[in-house]
Design brief:
Length: 107
């Protein structure tokens, strides 16, 4: 995708850099309970939040933002769909790597 955009000659603007300084659109960047405090004004507030690479039911406070935009039946359908997916067991080395990563983030 990046190669196609670059070869097209279209000017690309990174909205997270000056002078715009828009906050991140990735939900994983908002780990605090008061995630809205990052959105100090309308010009810096992201126009969307995405959960790419993580699930919106992992317990982060921002996950509530995902559910706030669903109706009752949609929430039920979402939870049912998530329940259908089989969990793949992980080996001890993968578990150890994830635990180390968790510790580094926590410190």
């Amino acid at each position: 995708m990046n190669a196609l955009v670059f070869s097209s000659g279209v000017k690309v603007t990174n909205l997270t850099l000056p002078p715009r300084n828009v906050e991140s659109t990735w939900a994983g960047d908002y780990r605090t309970a008061d995630y809205r405090s990052y959105w100090t004004d309308l010009d810096r507030t992201p126009c969307f939040i995405h959960w790419a690479g993580r699930k919106p039911d992992s317990g982060l406070p921002i996950d509530e933002l995902f559910y706030d935009h669903l109706r009752g039946k949609e929430i039920e359908a979402w939870r049912e769909e998530c329940g259908k997916k089989a969990k793949v067991p992980i080996g001890p080395l993968v578990a150890l790597k994830r635990f180390r990563k968790f510790l580094k983030r926590s410190l």
